[in-house]
Design brief:
142 residues, single chain
């Protein structure tokens, strides 16, 4: 077998022939241009994918933030509804307690126990009416 630097006659030379230099140079240039073009193409492909992924990730993060904002708004709305229900219930209780307070005043003024009722029952009756009056007065006042 001949080496790359041997001529057809079999004489060895220390330098390659100009034809070999031209062939090797052309092959090297073709390989370099193909590799360079491929490298740029691969870089552009990866860059496009990276930018596409970043855009999708950013949109996903924005969507998650929007969901969290809407969730917080729903919580605030729930608290507002609960407070609104409490105020509606308190308005209803106010009317009922005002009527009951009127009954307590009527029982104080016109409510008489029968003659001969033991003193301790009269005391318990007066004490319970006084406690009910104070409780209802506080509920209407506050």
């Amino acid at each position: 077998p001949r080496t790359a630097f041997e001529s057809e006659e079999g004489l060895g030379t220390s330098f390659p022939s100009p034809l070999h230099i031209m062939v090797v140079a052309t092959a090297a240039a073709a390989a370099a241009s193909a590799t360079g073009g491929t490298g740029i193409t691969l870089f552009d492909y990866n860059r496009k994918n990276f930018l596409y992924d970043r855009k999708l990730r950013q949109e996903t993060e924005y969507q998650i933030m929007d969901f969290r904002i809407k969730q917080a708004e729903l919580w605030r709305e729930d608290v507002k509804d609960i407070v609104g229900l409490t105020s509606v219930k308190m308005d209803t209780y106010l009317i009922v307690n005002a009527v009951q307070l009127g009954f307590c005043v009527m029982a104080f003024c016109e409510g008489r126990l029968a003659a001969g009722t033991p003193t301790w029952i009269i005391g318990a009756h007066t004490l319970s009416l006084g406690g009910a009056f104070m409780y209802l007065l506080m509920s209407v006042w506050l």
